[in-house]
Design brief:
2-enoyl-CoA Hydratase, Chain A, domain 1, alpha/beta, binds acetoacetyl-coenzyme A, Rossmann fold, binds 1,4-dihydronicotinamide adenine dinucleotide, about 50% helix, 7-stranded mixed sheet, N-(1-d-carboxylethyl)-l-norvaline Dehydrogenase, domain 2, globular
Length: about 700
């Protein structure tokens, strides 16, 4: 077969070239297959030089009679992970993505996309223009544009439903969550999965890898001879063999745009859209992009490909120019920036973490232990007595069993994770831990004693962290002979679910301990934000302001339910009183009784009830947080306004589509906010209404928090 194939291929003109088309795109021949390689670290984004290089490379291979087929592949850690988000704020340099994709799709030779890593956004849209798609077994494929407040605007909402059906396309585009290679094969997005050894792992194209090395003149092992990387060798060889076979079989080669069978299914059952909307209503509330994504996918069913694509572009432009996408793009970079410590020495070494310890197996300690076990890190969980330990471990087990019952993990996974958590009643069992997290009651004296005891047993250089909600980390460090190793790691409840960790740097905390805590948080799947010591750190300190204001507003005459409703309508998942109920303070038992109590309390404090408008409720709850955020920046407790935004969104449900409290304040206008704060201060008094000097200055200058960077 291989020989026949080669014979057939050799009947055309033989060509051999290795050519660069831009700084990030080159192509070389592998037999009669042109391998077009993208090398644009770190994530092979579709920057303008990638688009230019791809366009020129496609023109070159399309015209060359010696080229029978084309493989698109990337070097480094991933296939194209999307458009270059840094280019979104300016007019895109030519060529536009659509021109490039047309060149791929209309290529007269079969084009095979070989994906590994994260084939996301414009990357997956590029692959959907290829005639065939292969994915490494560990690859993840997705259209996460919705997370940036936009839609997959390079044909994604038109080609994906044709390939995988409307229901699957809606789910992928509206959640933005990636699917794995096996799922991609099952739903029709790809033609074959390629295992690490280059063997096809399933699908009708089980031959994909079998010819992996046949006829490979370039040896087929290296993804890029120039860069010396070979991690993709199996995938490349399989893709070349696959492409060669498709060339031998001849065309026409399938184009996603021509498929109709799965759209016909949706035409037959149009309820799919309403069912989907109902299912995702809570998750998408307030966001514009999901609505327009669903509309664009609906267009794929009701319009022809060209019309649907033209409308998709219009919707993309509408979203790109709107405030939600600007906010979500800001947040994307803020989240990544927060992970960086600007004032430490560059390349600070971190302590490798192979064992962890947690003290206290209550609500937080159990959840934190799960985070380590979920990441495959062994963890010793120390309690004060057997009953508390049994209780804590039972809760952890129940959580895992529930997740397994829902299909989130297998029963074997649950057992393996439980096996990584060892209960103990003796702090001395923490001697082997590289990081210990204390999560006993919020009681300073108790925590002091625990830190003194930890100092006596912990390994030299181990990071000793407290999960305190707001107590003085420096006071705890002072109980030890190694204050440089003491730090706060403030998880949020439920710790195994919430993504945020405030990493609280004490006065003496060493750069190594900070770097280790940040790296540990990231390793266990958290978003770590460095903050300084002050009561409540960043998040709880700002929230305390909102809570105080909400309570005061209630005394003035608004009901707790109305305060909650105003904040819910702004976009929080729940208002301040509902949040307190959830945390265990049941004030909402009976509306009339509690309103009566509130009136009595207000009268006792000499507060006259009066009508409070929704706007006043909103301003007082949010401006008090912004003012506090500005003070936090002034004091250096947070290094960047974006860090505060990350804490607000990830820790407290501040609506993502506004970008977080500081970004939202910039958009609302600092001048207007400062003026209102002055007004509230003169009417209501209270230290927290004293205008932050930083906010005052920025407002006077007509500047923004973002301008501080
Ligand atoms: N454009 C520009 N820069 C990007 C980028 C992108 N699409 N994706 C990641 N980066 C940058 C990050 O900012 C970061 O830069 P710094 O090192 O300077 O901070 C670097 O690449 C590494 O990123 P991560 O720290 O996030 O690395 P990771 O390994 O944890 O994750 C990833 C990698 C899964 C690809 C993740 O970065 C990611 O999800 N990126 C966004 C993907 C995305 O949204 N794609 C769709 C873009 S929109 C689009 O494609 C529109 C269209 O169709 C026209
Ligand atoms: P919890 O009351 O659920 O658990 C505390 C556990 O510590 C109990 O099981 C108790 O038996 C154990 N304990 C007490 N003394 C001990 C000792 N000497 N040695 C070993 N174990 C001991 O409390 P929770 O909610 O888990 O809080 C723990 C810490 O986390 C507190 O500092 C709290 O402020 C903080 N925190 C709590 C959050 C929450 O929402 N619950 C959120 C973020 C931080």
């Amino acid at each position: 077969m291989t020989t026949d194939a080669q014979k057939t291929l050799r009947s055309g003109a033989v060509t051999s070239f290795s050519e660069s088309f831009s700084e990030s795109v080159r192509a070389e021949m592998d037999g009669a297959v042109a391998v077009v390689m993208i090398d644009n670290p770190p994530v092979n984004a579709l920057s303008h030089h990638v688009r230019r290089g791809l366009l020129d490379a496609m023109a070159r291979v399309a015209d060359d009679d010696g080229v029978d087929a084309v493989v698109l592949i990337c070097s480094g850690r991933t296939f194209i992970a999307g458009a270059d988000i840094k280019e979104f704020d300016r007019a895109p340099a030519p060529p536009g993505i659509h021109r490039v994709l047309d060149a791929i799709e209309s290529c007269p030779k079969p084009v095979v996309a070989a994906m590994h890593g994260t084939a996301y956004g414009g990357g997956l849209e590029t692959a959907m223009c290829a005639h065939y798609r292969l994915a490494a077994a560990a690859a993840r494929l997705g259209l996460p544009e919705v997370k940036l407040g936009i839609l997959p605007g390079a044909g994604g909402t038109q080609r994906l439903p044709r390939l995988v059906g409307v229901a699957k396309a809606l789910e992928m585009c509206v959640t933005g969550d990636p699917i794995d290679a096996a799922d991609a094969l099952a739903c029709g997005l790809i033609d074959a999965v390629i295992e690490d050894n280059g063997e096809a792992g399933g699908g009708s194209e089980a031959d994909a890898g079998s010819e992996a090395d046949a006829g490979s003149e370039a040896g087929g092992g290296a993804i890029s001879e120039a860069s010396g990387k070979s991690e993709n060798g199996g995938l490349r060889a399989a893709a070349v063999a696959f492409a060669r076979r498709r060339a031998v079989e001849g065309g026409p080669h399938p184009r996603a745009r021509d498929l109709d069978a799965k759209l016909a299914e949706a035409r037959a059952s149009p309820a799919v859209f309403d069912e989907f909307k109902a299912r995702f209503a809570a998750r998408t509330r307030g966001f514009l992009a999901p609505e327009l994504i669903a509309a664009s996918i609906a267009n794929s069913v009701s319009m022809d490909f060209e019309a649907g694509s033209a409308r998709e572009r219009e919707l993309l432009i509408e979203l790109l120019g709107g405030p939600q996408s600007a906010a979500q793009r800001h947040f994307f970079f803020a989240q990544r920036r927060a992970a960086k410590i600007d004032d430490g020495p560059p390349a600070t070494p971190t302590r490798p973490v192979s064992e962890a310890g947690v003290v206290g197996a209550g609500t937080m300690g159990g959840g934190i232990a799960m985070c380590f076990a979920n990441a495959g890190i062994g963890v010793t969980l120390v309690e004060r007595d057997q009953a508390a330990l049994d209780r804590g471990l039972a809760v952890v087990r129940r959580n895992y069993e529930r997740t397994a019952a829902r299909g989130g993990i297998t029963g074997a996974d649950a057992e393996a994770r439980m096996g990584l958590i060892r209960g103990s009643l003796d702090l001395a069992d923490l001697a082997g831990a590289d990081v210990v997290i204390e999560a006993v009651f919020e009681d300073m004296d108790l925590k002091r004693r625990v830190f003194a005891a930890l100092d006596a047993v912990a390994a030299p250089g181990a990071v000793l962290a407290t999960n305190t909600s707001g107590l003085d980390v420096n006071g705890l460090a002072a109980e030890t002979s190694r204050p440089e190793s003491v730090i706060g790691m403030h998880f949020f409840s439920p710790a195994n679910v919430m993504e945020l960790v405030e990493v609280v740097r004490g006065a003496a905390t060493s750069p190594e301990a900070v770097a280790t805590a940040m790296a540990t948080a990231r390793r266990i799947g958290k978003i770590a934000v460095p903050v300084g010591v002050c009561p409540g750190f960043v998040g709880n300190r700002m929230l305390a302001r909102r809570q105080a204001e909400a309570e005061r507003i209630v005394l003035e005459g608004a009901t707790p339910a109305r305060v909650d409703r105003v904040l819910y309508d702004f976009g929080f998942p729940m208002g301040p009183f509902a949040m307190q109920d959830l945390a265990g303070l049941d004030i909402g038992w009976k509306a009339e009784t509690s309103t009566e109590m509130i009136r009595d309390l207000a009268a006792g404090r000499g507060i006259e009830p009066r009508p409070v408008s929704d706007q006043e409720v909103l301003e007082r709850c949010l401006y008090s947080m912004v003012n506090e955020g500005a003070k936090i920046l002034e004091e250096g407790v947070a290094a960047r306004p974006g860090d505060i935004d990350v804490v607000g969104v990830k820790g407290y449900g501040w609506p993502l589509y506004t970008g977080g409290p500081m970004f939202w304040a910039d958009a609302a206008g600092l001048g207007r906010i400062a003026e209102s704060i002055r007004d509230y201060h003169s009417r209501l008094g209270g230290r927290h209404w004293e205008l932050s000097p930083l906010l005052e200055r920025l407002a006077a200058e007509g500047s923004t928090f973002a301008g501080l960077l």
